[in-house]
Write a structure and sequence with these properties.
The complex is a heterotrimer of chains A (141), B (121) and C (177). Chain A has 141 residues and is mostly helical. In chain A, 76% of the residues lie in helices and 0% in strands. In chain A, helix 1 runs antiparallel to helix 2 and helix 2 crosses helix 3. The longest helix of chain A has 34 residues. Chain B is an all-alpha fold and 121 residues long. Chain B contains four helices and no strands. In chain B, helix 2 packs antiparallel against helix 3. The chains are: A mainly alpha (141), B mainly alpha (121), C mainly alpha (177). Chains B and C meet through helix 1, helix 2 and helix 3 of B and helix 1, helix 2, helix 3, helix 4 and helix 5 of C.
Chain lengths: 141, 121, 177
């Protein structure tokens, strides 16, 4: 599909909006529908879209395998880090009101970081699974 | 009985998914049938939480009746776990295809030796 | 109502899916079914769930199924036996479930037990305690944050499982070196 001019141009125009929409869904999840899961899936879908139009090798160059594997684990570690931060600051595991003097601001902080962790893990896992499936059918590169 | 129409369709989707899983031999179709079964369960959970005249559970001054947010939370988790199961199931199907050469249940079972181990391919 | 029409369409899609043998059609129909499900969920005021179902069920699931289909390259074989026993078992289960749902409250009954106990507390105190208007996100991330940790771990485990299953271990046999 690399040689089709319309697909390439349309993909180039669409991709920034896809990623921007993913970030909007992530951060606006407090005020409207959205949150970490949807944003992570939209980010993975954007990279899959890029891989479909420009080829798997180009997609691997833009989003390398090492980065995706690191993202898979980093999100879970971030989530548990927030949990342990609540523990270290005097509350129970995953307590948010201890993260700041004002308990509502502490809730905001906790929710922000764990939603970020969720988005990172979900996008990493979905992308890694896609890479694995797409790579299996190739005998030569 | 009109109030139970959503339950009737939920049950129909559930048994249709169950039928696809147990009656069809193709492994990918079985996984799709399992997904249909799971989706009907989402409907079973979310439908009783809806209040006619209510709105989505996003609190604002303009509304005072909201649909129940608890089933939404449970089903959000269930959807993501469902796709995780689907991904692992499909990876297993790919490996089965490489080991036995087919993804039809009958041919896979026939490809085993009498003692149950796979024939050498 | 629009919900009933969409539910009937979903039932029709599933019946066609059960009968069609071409696997590509099966996958497209499953994506269509997921989109109809997302629309029904919007009509039921479950907007978060609808967005997740549309993106995960109709988006990523279809991509994964198509990827697996490309690797398996087959079509469903003609069924050898008539499916009378599975039909009987499914119908029996369906009758049992119908008997079970007779005791459930009617659609949109404000006095149903689901609307008592914890849900009104989340709706009233949630935005005040967490500062977030979206009660679903507040419950998911704050009140039931531990469950969400388990869910993220499940997603990670699924990714690790797929990596373990599909990782290339042996050297490629077609190397002309």
């Amino acid at each position: 599909m690399k040689r089709d001019l319309i697909l390439r141009v349309v993909a180039k125009v669409f991709l920034p909006f896809l990623l921007m929409f993913a970030l909007y869904v992530q951060f606006h999840g407090d005020f409207g529908p959205g949150g970490g899961f949807q944003a992570g899936v939209i980010i993975a879908a954007a990279v899959v879209f890029y891989a479909l139009i420009y080829g798997l090798a180009n997609a691997r160059r833009v989003v390398p395998e090492r980065l995706v594997e690191a993202m898979m684990a980093a999100g879970v570690l971030l989530y548990m880090g927030v949990g342990f931060a609540g523990l270290l600051l005097g509350g129970n595991f995953l307590d948010y009101f201890v993260l700041d003097r004002d308990s509502v601001v502490g809730q905001h902080r906790g929710i922000f970081w764990i939603e970020a962790g969720v988005a990172i893990t979900v996008s990493g896992v979905m992308l890694k699974i896609f890479y694995m499936f797409a790579d299996r059918g190739r005998i030569d590169e | 009985m009109v109030g139970h129409f959503s339950y009737a369709v939920t049950i129909f989707l559930m048994i249709a998914g169950l039928f696809i899983v147990i009656a069809r031999g193709n492994l990918i179709k079985k996984l799709v049938g399992l997904g249909i079964f799971q989706t009907s369960v989402y409907l079973l959970y979310v439908a009783p939480g809806k209040l006619v005249g209510g709105t989505a559970p996003i609190v604002s001054e303009a509304f005072d009746v909201y649909s129940n947010p608890l089933p939404h939370v449970l089903i959000l988790t269930a959807i993501v776990v469902g796709v995780a199961t689907l991904a692992v199931g499909l990876a297993l199907v790919v490996r089965i295809r490489e080991a036995y050469g087919s993804i039809e249940e009958d041919e896979i079972l026939a490809g085993d030796d009498e003692d149950g181990s796979a024939e050498q391919r | 109502m629009i919900i009933n029409v969409l539910l009937v369409l979903m039932a029709v899609a599933v019946v066609v899916l059960a009968r069609v043998r071409n696997l590509f059609s099966v996958i497209v129909l499953s994506g269509l079914y997921s989109f109809l499900m997302a629309t029904v969920l919007v009509a039921l005021d479950a907007v978060d769930v609808a967005m997740t179902e549309a993106s995960v069920g109709a988006g990523i699931s279809t991509v994964l199924l198509l990827g697996a289909l490309h690797l398996c390259k087959s079509e469903e074989a003609k069924p050898v036996h008539k499916p009378w026993l599975p039909l009987a078992v499914s119908a029996a289960c369906g009758l049992l479930l119908v008997y079970g749902t007779l005791g459930l409250p009617a659609f949109s009954d404000p006095g149903a037990p689901i609307h008592t106990h914890v849900a009104p507390r989340y709706l009233q105190d949630g935005p005040r305690e967490t500062g977030i208007p979206n009660v679903v996100t507040a419950v998911l991330a704050s009140y039931r944050g531990y469950d969400t940790l388990g869910e993220v771990t499940v997603v990670f485990t699924a990714g690790a499982g797929v990596v373990a299953l599909l990782r290339r271990r042996r050297a490629r046999k077609e190397q002309p070196k």
